[in-house]
Amino acid sequence: MTTPPIQLADFHSVVFFIGAGMSAESGVPTYRGRGGIWGEYDYTEYACQRAFERDPRKVLDFHELRRTRVLACAPHAGHLALARLQAKHPQVQVVTQNIDGLLQRAGVRVDAELHGSLWRLRCATHGVQDDAASGAFATRHCTACGAVLRPDITWFEDAVDEAVFARAGERIAACDLFVSVGTSAVVYPAASFIPLAQRNGALMVEINPEATEASSRFMRVVREPASTAIADAFL
């Protein structure tokens, strides 16, 4: 018997928790595992503060290449379905581990970007500066002080943005429906949000073609890719 779609109108607060698997369907490389970007590149050369301080031009050139590659990828049907659900149900919130901006390009309102964004740069003194959504950075220098800007991303060896994680945690702790989409559930501290939602009594739904280490925490499991499952599983 086919499981009926979940009626989002029945829930007070809904959180979709998005991982790299959702973007992988659009062709964006994941970070770990088969085909992962850090299997091809050494993060100590391109994705940590030490690398940036040693050779900022090399690091920024690499991130421009990443932006160009992401721009060649389009949001898929799952991104668009999520945007439609959110437009219909204002209580739908989105917390993402992804930095690629595909959700926003599909029209999704993202409430927390846990690991930052490939489309922003920041100055150590003057904070985040918006950047043009193109491959090449609009500028590599702070408009206030002239310092070299770094991508507004949580790199390897960085501390997480505590304010962003706190905001996400508040939403997840308060939700009564928690939907994990395309996340491996092994990258901490982001993965700690799954048991948080479970402890607080949310209906737990996992969308992932493969089982994960956290699958046993979910009451409903959809073994399909996000590109089809989001449209089919929710109304």
How would you sum up this structure, described in words?
The structure is a single chain. The protein is of the alpha/beta class. The protein folds into two domains: about 1-25 and about 75-115 and about 160-235, Rossmann fold, CATH 3.40.50.1220; about 30-70 and about 120-155, SIR2/SIRT2 'Small Domain' (2-Layer Sandwich), CATH 3.30.1600. Helix content is about 35%, strand content about 15%. It contains ten helices and nine strands. The longest helix is centred in the N-terminal third of the chain and has 16 residues, at about 55-70. The two termini are about 20 Å apart. The mean pLDDT is about 95.
What are the salient characteristics of this protein?
235 residues; alpha/beta; Rossmann fold; SIR2/SIRT2 'Small Domain'; six-stranded parallel beta sheet; 10 helices; 17% strand; elongated
Task: Provide a concise account of the structure shown.
With 235 residues, the protein is α/β, with parallel strands linked by helices. The chain has 10 helices and 9 strands.
Overall 3D geometry?
elongated
**Proportion in β-strands:** 15-25%
N-to-C series of helices and strands? EHHHHHHEHEEEEHEHEEH
Per the CATH scheme, the topology name of the largest domain is Rossmann fold
The level of helicity is 25-40%
Strand line-up across the major sheet = 3-2-1-7-8-9
Q: Look at the helices and sheets and give the structural class.
A: alpha/beta
Distance between the termini: 18 Å
> Total number of helical segments?
10
Task: Give me the CATH architecture of the largest domain, please.
Answer: 3-Layer(aba) Sandwich
